[in-house]
Amino acid sequence: MLGHQGYLKILVSGAYASGKTTFVKTVSETILTTEVPVTSPGEQKVKEYTTVAFDYGKVTVDGMPVYLFGTPGQTRLQFMWRVLSYGMHGYIFLVDGSNMMEVYRAKPLYLYMKSLGNYPHIIAVNKQDVKGAVPPRQVAQILSVSPEIVYPLVARDKIVALGVLKQLVNLIVTTKPSIKTDH
Ligand SMILES: Nc1nc2c(ncn2[C@@H]2O[C@H](COP(=O)(O)OP(=O)(O)OP(=O)(O)O)[C@@H](O)[C@H]2O)c(=O)[nH]1
Ligand SMILES: [Mg+2]
Q1: Of 28, 59, 145, 174, which residue is the least packed, with the fewest Cβ within 10 Å?
Q2: Total of domains in the chain
Q3: Could you list the residue ranges forming a coiled coil in this record (predicted)?
């Protein structure tokens, strides 16, 4: 039997400004976000709004209701990741692929996600529309994972983003429910 109850809870996680809110907004049919203006001067240079609690979205994929929870990216809000991960069936870890520094910055955060339990997950290398973006294969090497779980992403592009979500849904429904969690 499948390890879900007729719906899937999927976490969308990743570093500050990696594109989590954009992804949830792009793929979802209904959406709730908790964005507020950025107050920290360093982070303001990157963008105007940041997620303070979570993004929530619902979409149906191949007949399966999928509830998406996007995590807040600021380091001081990272305690929310464990809270939001409760009961999840899997996660998408977004990496900002627009420059190499962001890829290295994502590594400890990815290791933190893995420490939450052995969940089905994929890594999506976002901002592939940016010239000179880091290719997924290189991200796989840096994060020491199989290239099979690393996908290119443009979170603003509905077809691409839905394609990435479908990959995770397929992975979850074909994975045996031997999920070990720390909860
Ligand atoms: N070029 C490009 N920019 C993107 C893409 N997706 C998101 N962005 C931009 O990246 C910035 C961050 O996007 P958000 O969706 O706010 O990122 P986030 O991960 O939710 O950010 P926090 O919640 O603050 O951690 C914004 O300026 C987006 O417009 C993409 O596919 N391509
Ligand atoms: Mg956000």
Answers
A1: 174
A2: 1
A3: none
Domain holding 103: CATH number? Answer: 3.40.50.300
Domain assignment present for residue 180? The answer is no
Instruction: Render pLDDT for 7-36 as a digit per residue (tens, 0 to 9).
Output: 999 999 999 999 999 999 999 999 999 999
Q: Residue 80 domain-assigned? A: yes
Quick check: is 162 in a domain? yes
Q: Please choose, from the candidates 33, 38, 58, 56, the residue with its C-alpha nearest in 3D space to the C-alpha of residue 48.
A: 38
Does the C-beta of 71 come closer than 6 Å to ligand 1? no
Q: What is the SS3 assignment for 144?
A: coil
What is the rounded distance in angstroms from the CA atom of residue 182 to the CA atom of residue 6? 23
Report the alpha-carbon distance of residue 97 to residue 130 in Å, rounded. 8
CA of 122 to the centre of ligand 1 (A): 18
The residue segments making up the domain with residue 133 are 8-174
Q: What would the two tokens of residue 68 be?
A: 């998406």
Cα atoms found within 13 Å of the Cα of residue 29, Cβ hemisphere only? 7
What tokens does 175 get? 């994975």
Domain membership flag for residue 128: yes
How do residues 97-145 score in pLDDT, each as one tens digit? 999 999 999 999 999 999 999 999 999 999 999 999 999 999 999 999 9
